[in-house]
Every structure is written in structure tokens, then in C-alpha cells.
Amino acid sequence: MKNKKNIYKTAYVLSVPLVVGLIMEVIVYMQTGGHLISSMLDIRNIIRDLGVTALIAFALSLNLGSGRFDLSLGAQRLVATIIGGNIALRLGFNGIGVLIMAILFGLLAGFVVGMIFITFRVPPVILGLGMAMVYESLAFAGSRGLGLQLFGAPNTRMLVNPNFTLMVLGLATLFVFVLFTYTKFRYEMQAMRGSQKIAKTSGINVFRHVVICYTIAGGLVAIAGVLSAAMAGALLPTLGMTSNSAVIAMTFPMFIGTYLSRRSNIALGIISASLTIRLFGFGMVALQISTALNTTINMILFIGFLAFLANRHIPDLRKREKARIKEAKAKIKERKELSLAS
């Protein structure tokens, strides 16, 4: 019975992008006479966008779920991909070598941020801003402003293969699924979300947990950085905190995925939410809506969703309040009847 209930919940989560895709297909067909997905190129682009979106959303969920917004994730993505990727190319590594080297630098970048956080107790937002500027400068100086150039690089064509993207995304999703389902990390995360003081009192090594979150997040954004560089042919360094734009844009699917995870797992929730957002974005492009208007619509929907999350308990609270008032009135009436009878 329990397994059957879990299957229904998982089917519900996975049906969300299907429903949104069908709605966008109908709208696109009615407005343009075309289709949401009209060629294999569209499918390839959806797979690539899904990989980048889901990986960054995974990274965000590790810290943001516990109230820590790491604003250095975008810069970690830059420094890991550019520095690690260039070292791999100079050593003659192929695409897998570039990916592995970037992951190692991403894990290191995240670990450094985590260690600074637990050592100096700097507020996460301030720490993220400072480390973002440091990592952006390192990425710029380390590549002499050229970034990572993968276009024409030998033995790296596999990175643009959508099957390779699906394989990497599948492994990352499996890792997150196991991490949040079958390890004690899951219980530590739930305790940290409630209260870090209570979690520490109950015997959880809070500082170790925080460092693990920062470290894994760094590795995940490094993977996303390599896939982004492969899609565009290059990844250029940026300064002035502009590296955050790629990460902040993924907070929407992260919040939707976290909400959907109540019926399933955070991994499946984020995958479903990421695909939903990508299909919606493809619909906007098919409808020939400008980038500025598309961004505006997404932000309005994002704010509306946050408002929904903040107020979703109000109807239940009002219902309980009415029930308590009704019960109190019934007791008062009963007491009056008893007093009159006596």
C-alpha cells in the first residue's frame, strides 16, 4: 500500500512538466500554427538547458534550504571551469578529463568557502559577495581574460553530445537522490532546516555538515559550467558580481523543485521543475516573445509562487480557527443549558 502511494506521488511530480508542455503546445499551435518542439535541434537544446538548470538548482538547494544563500556559486562555476578546464587542456586531457578537473577545482572552491564560513562565522550573504569577487578575479587573471575556449579543442566533442549530457545529469541526479534518501545527510539536513541550535544540541556536527554542503555545491556548479562552456564553445570570465546572474536565474526551479519534493524526493522534484521551466521558456521563444518580456513574465511568476509558498497555510489555519470557535460556542451553549436545567 505504501509503495503504491509512493508511485502515485512520483507520478504526480513527473506529470507537472508534461502538463505544462501540453499547455504550451496548445498555445503555440493556436497562435502560430507551429509546435513547441519542431526538430531534433529543439530536443538537443532542451536536454542541454535541462542539464545546466538542474545541476545549478541542485547546488542551490544544498545551502538555500538551510537558510544560507551562497552568492559565490556563480564565481565558483567560473573559476572551476576556467582554471580546471585550461589545466586539463594543457595536459592533453579529453572531454572527460576536462570535466573531472573542473569538478575537482569546484569541490576545492566550495570547500574553501565552507571552511571560511565555519572559521570566521561571516554571514553567508556577505561571505558570498566577498568570495565571488575573489573567484571572479582569479578566473580572469588565471586565464588572462580569455576564459576557457572549447571550440576546436581536441577530443572534447563529447561534451556537446546530448547523450553525454543525459548521462552526466543522470549520475548527478542519482547522487543527489541517494544523498537525500539513504544517508544520514538527509536527517542532518532536515534538522538543520528546523533549527541549527537544536541540531547541534542533538549531536549533529553542524560545521561538518555546512562544509559538506558548500563542497558538493561547488562540484555541481562546476559540472554545469563545463556543459555551458561546451554549448557556447567558450566560457568567458566576468567581473563585478555578474557571474551570479546564471545562478540566481535558477532559484525559481529550485523553489518549485523543493515544493514538489514534499511528494517525492528533492532530486526528482528539481528535475521535474527544471524541465517545466525549460518547456515554458521554449514556449515563450516559439511565441516570439522578447527576452525582456520573457524575463518579466518569469519574475512575476516567481514572485507569485513565493507569495503562494508564504501563504499556503493560511486557509488551513482559518479552517482550524473556525472549528475551534464552533467548538467553543458549542461548549458555552452546553454549559448554559446545564445551568438552566439545574
UniProtKB/TrEMBL annotation:
<dbReference type="GO" id="GO:0005886">
    <property type="term" value="C:plasma membrane"/>
</dbReference>
<feature type="transmembrane region" description="Helical">
    <location>
        <begin position="164"/>
        <end position="185"/>
    </location>
</feature>
<dbReference type="GO" id="GO:0022857">
    <property type="term" value="F:transmembrane transporter activity"/>
</dbReference>
<dbReference type="InterPro" id="IPR001851">
    <property type="entry name" value="ABC_transp_permease"/>
</dbReference>
<feature type="transmembrane region" description="Helical">
    <location>
        <begin position="295"/>
        <end position="314"/>
    </location>
</feature>
<feature type="transmembrane region" description="Helical">
    <location>
        <begin position="267"/>
        <end position="289"/>
    </location>
</feature>
<keyword id="KW-0472">Membrane</keyword>
<feature type="transmembrane region" description="Helical">
    <location>
        <begin position="125"/>
        <end position="144"/>
    </location>
</feature>
<keyword id="KW-0812">Transmembrane</keyword>
<feature type="transmembrane region" description="Helical">
    <location>
        <begin position="206"/>
        <end position="235"/>
    </location>
</feature>
<dbReference type="Pfam" id="PF02653">
    <property type="entry name" value="BPD_transp_2"/>
</dbReference>
<feature type="transmembrane region" description="Helical">
    <location>
        <begin position="241"/>
        <end position="260"/>
    </location>
</feature>
<protein>
    <submittedName>
        <fullName>Ribose/xylose/arabinose/galactoside ABC-type transport system permease subunit</fullName>
    </submittedName>
</protein>
<feature type="transmembrane region" description="Helical">
    <location>
        <begin position="12"/>
        <end position="31"/>
    </location>
</feature>
<keyword id="KW-1003">Cell membrane</keyword>
<feature type="transmembrane region" description="Helical">
    <location>
        <begin position="95"/>
        <end position="118"/>
    </location>
</feature>
<keyword id="KW-1133">Transmembrane helix</keyword>
